[in-house]
Q: What sequence folds into this?
């Protein structure tokens, strides 16, 4: 995958604070604004690779931008060969902890490399990865945060109608479990039996409470239960999975396939959903997808629908795409949803391009 003509000339990052259409409020945290770092990887042929990182809070924007700036010295002048660049950066930072900002920045650079590499080949990323750009089944994850249970049904109905979705996700973890149950039942009354409901506890429970609540949820007809306990407690997840009938979904916080393999060995979950920003970018996703295929595990995505649709198009065990519109305010061509499917762009690269007027509006200097 090496091309002698295409080289990196500049790597830059900018931070934006965009508004949410529906403010995420979970049992673990409330996120007021969409804090994102936009990465632009420029080349000697005028092509520019784009990616973005979601930092969850404004306080993490500047450290992330600074990290990108410092790393740029390592790769400017390098040939655009994503696997080689990934190997170079991993070797350079081998002694560092890549579980935080550094790991996310490396993933962002990897995503931008694959974007510009695909543009150079004049193919969509999905095609470069050996797949075909295709519609990917998606669930609407833009709402149904912790709110008055009486309001969840109306909101769920609206979320379904936004793109003809056949599935939505609700957040749980209220202090009174009866309110969680009321929220679930209200949602199901509105969406009907032909629309699937996933739920996410956002790591808010301890192990014993998780087992009790998840066993109670076995009678609610849920598609999956996500992250009831701390994300790295794989032994705990295995205990929960053994005690309940509803499928268990985990994986959004995994930073490499070594963690994923440990979870698989422990039979910690039924489904896995890597986050492209945390698992190591496109290159890390490919490794996770291979591991899922070997172990016959369904693989879904976490956030980043703009690039995740390409990744799932090239994933043998493709399951569900998590649709959020958080980056749409700064996108020139926001991702399209049609009849419950995210439409993977059939254009060179990932299709990520900035609406510069919007970027300037939300830019953090």
A:
């Amino acid at each position: 995958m090496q091309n002698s003509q295409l080289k990196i000339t500049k790597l830059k990052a900018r931070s934006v604070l965009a508004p949410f259409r529906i403010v995420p409020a979970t049992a673990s945290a409330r996120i007021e604004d969409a804090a994102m770092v936009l990465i632009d990887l420029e080349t000697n042929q005028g092509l520019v690779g784009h990616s973005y990182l979601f930092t969850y809070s404004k306080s993490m924007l500047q450290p992330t931008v600074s990290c990108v700036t410092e790393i740029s010295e390592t790769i400017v002048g390098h040939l655009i060969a994503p696997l080689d660049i990934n190997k170079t950066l991993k070797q350079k930072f081998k002694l560092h902890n890549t579980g935080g900002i550094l790991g996310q920045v490396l993933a962002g650079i990897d995503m931008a490399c694959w974007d510009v590499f695909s543009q150079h080949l004049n193919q969509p990323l999905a095609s470069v990865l050996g797949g075909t750009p295709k519609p990917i089944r998606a669930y609407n994850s833009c709402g149904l945060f912790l709110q008055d249970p009486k309001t969840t049904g109306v909101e769920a109905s609206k979320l379904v109608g936004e793109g003809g979705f056949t599935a939505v996700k609700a957040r749980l973890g209220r202090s009174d479990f009866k309110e969680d149950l009321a929220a679930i039942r209200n949602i199901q009354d509105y969406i009907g039996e032909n629309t699937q409901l996933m739920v996410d506890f956002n790591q808010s429970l301890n192990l014993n409470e998780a087992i009790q609540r998840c066993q109670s949820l076995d009678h609610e007809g849920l598609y999956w239960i996500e992250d009831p306990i701390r994300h790295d407690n794989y032994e705990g997840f295995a205990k929960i999975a053994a005690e309940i009938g509803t499928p268990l979904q985990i994986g959004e916080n995994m930073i490499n396939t070594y963690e994923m393999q440990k979870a698989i060995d422990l039979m910690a979950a039924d489904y896995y959903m890597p986050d492209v920003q945390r698992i190591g970018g496109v290159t890390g996703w490919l490794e996770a997808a291979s591991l899922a295929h070997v172990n016959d595990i369904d693989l879904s995505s976490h956030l980043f629908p703009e690039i995740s649709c390409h990744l799932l198009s090239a994933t043998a065990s493709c399951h569900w795409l998590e649709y959020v519109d958080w980056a749409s305010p700064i996108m020139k061509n926001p991702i399209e949803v049609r009849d419950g499917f995210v439409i993977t762009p059939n254009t060179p690269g990932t299709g990520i391009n900035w609406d510069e007027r919007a970027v300037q509006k939300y830019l953090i200097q």
The CA atoms of residues 5 and 225 lie 48 Å apart. The chain has a mean pLDDT of 96.
